[in-house]
Amino acid sequence: MSYEVKHAALLKWVHETAELTQPDAIHWCDGSQAEYDQLMAQMVEIGMATALKKRPNSFLFRSDPSDVARVEARTFISTTNKADAGPTNNWIAPDLLKATMTDLYWGCMKGRTMYVIPFSMGPLDSPIAAIGVELSDSPYVVCNMRIMTRMGKTVIEKLGDTGRFFPAVHSIGSPCDDTTINQVWPCAEIDHKYISHFPEEGLIWSYGSGYGGNALLGKKCLALRIASATGKREGWMAEHMLILRLTNPAGRQYHIAAAFPSACGKTNLAMITPTIPGWKAECIGDDIAWMKPGPDGRLYAINPEAGFFGVAPGTSYATNPMAMETMKENSIFTNTALTDDGDVWWEGIDGAPPAHVIDWKGRDWTPASKDLAAHANSRFTAPATQCPIIARDWENPLGVPIDIFIFGGRRASVVPLVTESFNWDHGVFMGATAASETTAANIGAVGNLRRDPFAMMPFCGYNMGDYFQHWFDMGDTLGSNAPKVFYVNWFRKNTAGKWLWPGYGENSRVLKWMCERLDGTAGAVETPIGFVPTEADIDLNGLDWPIDRLQEVLKVDAPAWLPEVPDIAKFFSQFGDRLPARLTAQLDALAARLKAS
Ligand code: OXD
Ligand code: MN
After folding, report:
1. Closest alpha carbon to 465 in 591, 292, 584
2. Pocket test for ligand 1, best of 262, 286, 377, 446 (most atoms within 8 A of CB)
3. What is the mean predicted confidence (pLDDT) over 425-429?
4. Which ligand 1 atom minimizes the distance to the CA of 69?
5. For residues 517 and 484, is the Cβ–Cβ distance under 8 A?
6. Average model confidence (pLDDT) for the chain?
7. Rounded alpha-carbon distances, angstroms, from residue 430 to 416, 419, 486, 527, 590
8. Is the pLDDT of residue 490 over 80?
9. Catalytic annotation on 264?
10. Which of 217, 299, 300, 370 could bond 221 through an S-S bridge, CB–CB 3.0 to 4.6 Å?
């Protein structure tokens, strides 16, 4: 151990976990570059990682083809009472789940090293931050956690003798023995994978997967599932939101937090390059926001993460130049393709496809191949500090005051480009009814419409009905300081299947309208679903886009909206008496407005 640990409860838990899992060695991570380099060198040596000739200090990993995404069907919220996990979470009683997992954990790290990974979600000196400690038998997890969190010795120092930490156990679920020694990405079969959360204790147990949110336990497990339940108890919010600062030509700053389901362009919006002259965007975070009311009564947000774990396919200099710059060096790539000259490649990256690459399964691939070269959920892990537009003060321990919340999803029809809520309760209704067509970020069918309230469906660590109530309670606390709420849909198409809005940097025009609504300087029309701009209200200067498409993307089609009402009612009915009456009132009011229109 390269530092002294005096925290008795931490030492005891590490010792007990090692007794159970039986690793050959225990390594307390110090978070240094030397440690990272050494682990990477070991992984290159055994063929698990490939050093990329074209990107300094960057590496490519290929996972087992069965271990490529979050496994929602194997993700559990284990509360004493099933009703407290709610109808949208998988539930197993804590005693039973712990007994099952204890059997699986027994001896599961034999032949491997158990890494102790102390990490902080948020700047170490932030009153909004929290500390976790992950015990993992995956060196890949250690290296990713070093990018994604503040990790190592400084965290142990901050913890002192008695500091609060969230314990998180992770095992890939495959002891190193004669049968597994040559596997570069060992993991357990699907029925043995468990991504388990015990929100009443603030405890995480993960088994069987080495990929992304299943294994980097600071991210979805702690910063969303456990933190959302903790925030409910303690009066703060953990949300699946990017954080972005916009500055107008007069120097006025606006802070925006936006929630979209996985793979709906959150990272692109977080790093937007505005096309409107004089408007500047800075990134503060791309996936998670922790928010607490500040002394002035406003809501302050920090990004608890220190890096980006972004979806690679579709990312290019055309769609997200800032992300491309961010991952030029010191980055990890997982399940992308490898070019012959030692760089990464994926579908949608700039330029013509290379004549030959090694695909994510390690096979030869040419443009004639019928399979994708990069897995649809292949990822880059890159340090936030390398983002050219990261806000200078993105690590301000006090966070930034949020002015605007945006919800949204991917809808080919019905939902207009942007809608402003009538008031806070209506904004909560918009968040609670958000829906999106599914993508490859989770295992399951692609292209189905699913309601994904607040983009938190897979990430809410307690009964979602209670979560809706928490949003109303936070609004009551914030009163007139509550952010204004908007709903967007960048993905509407016409009947010929053509995009009705150009998206990407042009989305700054929609953001500008929101800021002006805040200042009371932009117009809108009142419709049954909220305030919607006309094409005259949005700054279209310099935008070369057919006017009929603009009119169509803003159109509110009341008859097309009507079927949403019973669909929402059905969705709400699953929450029974945990559904806040204020949401039912919103649905009734929407139905009445649609019928009257
Ligand atoms: C993510 C996700 O990885 O939401 O951020 O799936
Ligand atoms: Mn996410």
Report:
1. 584
2. 262
3. 98
4. 6
5. yes
6. 96
7. 13, 9, 8, 14, 11
8. yes
9. yes
10. 217
Q: Model pTM? A: 0.97
Ligand 1 atom having least distance to the Cα of 287: 5
Residue ranges, comma separated, of all CATH 3.90.228.20 domains in the chain are 239-307+393-596
Q: Which atom of ligand 1 is nearest to the CA of 455?
A: 4
Fold adopted by 8-235? Phosphoenolpyruvate Carboxykinase; domain 1 (3.40.449)
Q: What is the pLDDT of residues 317-375, one digit of tens each?
A: 999 999 999 999 999 999 999 999 999 999 999 999 999 999 999 999 999 999 999 99
Select from 71, 267, 287 the residue to mutate for testing ligand 1; criterion: most ligand atoms less than 8 Å from CB.
Answer: 287
Provide the percentage of residues in the chain whose pLDDT is more than 70: 98
Fold observed for domain 239-307+393-596: Phosphoenolpyruvate Carboxykinase; domain 3 (3.90.228)
Ligand 1 atom nearest the C-alpha of 261 is 4
Catalytic residue among 29, 108, 264, 387: 264
Higher pLDDT among residues 391 and 261, named by residue: 391
pLDDT of 1 higher than 80: no
Structure tokens at 390: 């990261």
Distance (Å) from CA 380 to ligand 2 centroid: 13
Q: Which ligand places an atom closest to the C-alpha of 214?
A: 1
**pLDDT (average), residues 14-41:** 98
Ligand 1, atom 1, residue with closest C-alpha:
262
Q: Whose C-alpha lies nearest to ligand 1, atom 4?
A: 262
Report the DSSP pairing between strands 203-207 and 253-259: unpaired
Residue-by-residue DSSP string for 509-523: HHHHHHHHHHHT-S-
d(CA 459, ligand 1 centre) in Å: 10
Please tell me the predicted confidence (pLDDT) of residue 439: 60
CA 413 – CA 497 distance, rounded (Å): 10
State how far the alpha carbon of 585 is from the alpha carbons of 142, 357, 431, 466, 589, in Å: 48, 56, 15, 16, 6
Q: Where, residue-wise, is CATH 3.40.449.10 in the chain? A: 8-235
Residues of the chain with CATH 2.170.8.10: 308-386
The pLDDT value recorded for residue 264 is 84
pLDDT of 448 reads 76
Q: Atom 6 of ligand 1 has which residue's CA nearest to it?
A: 262
pLDDT in tens, 177-227: 999 999 999 999 999 999 999 999 999 999 999 999 999 999 999 999 999
Distance of CA 540 to the CA centre of its chain: 31
- Categorize the per-residue pLDDT at 443 as very low, low, confident or very high, splitting at 50, 70 and 90: very low
Ligand 1 pocket, residues with Cβ under 6 angstroms: 70, 212-213, 262, 287, 309, 441
Could you tell me the sign of the dihedral formed by the alpha carbons of 114, 115, 118, 119, in that order? negative
**Cα 225 to ligand 1 centroid, rounded to whole Å:** 13
Q: What is the pLDDT of residue 119?
A: 98
Ligand 1 atom having least distance to the Cα of 441: 6
Give the CA angle between residues 73, 76, 78 to the nearest 5°.
155
CA distance 336 to 96: 38
Which ligand sits closest to the CA of 212?
1
Query: What average pLDDT score do residues 54-70 get?
Result: 97
Cα 455 to middle of ligand 2, angstroms:
8
Kindly report the protein residue whose alpha carbon is nearest to atom 2 of ligand 1.
262
pLDDT band at 545 (very low <50, low <70, confident <90, very high): very high
* CATH number for the domain formed by residue range(s) 308-386: 2.170.8.10
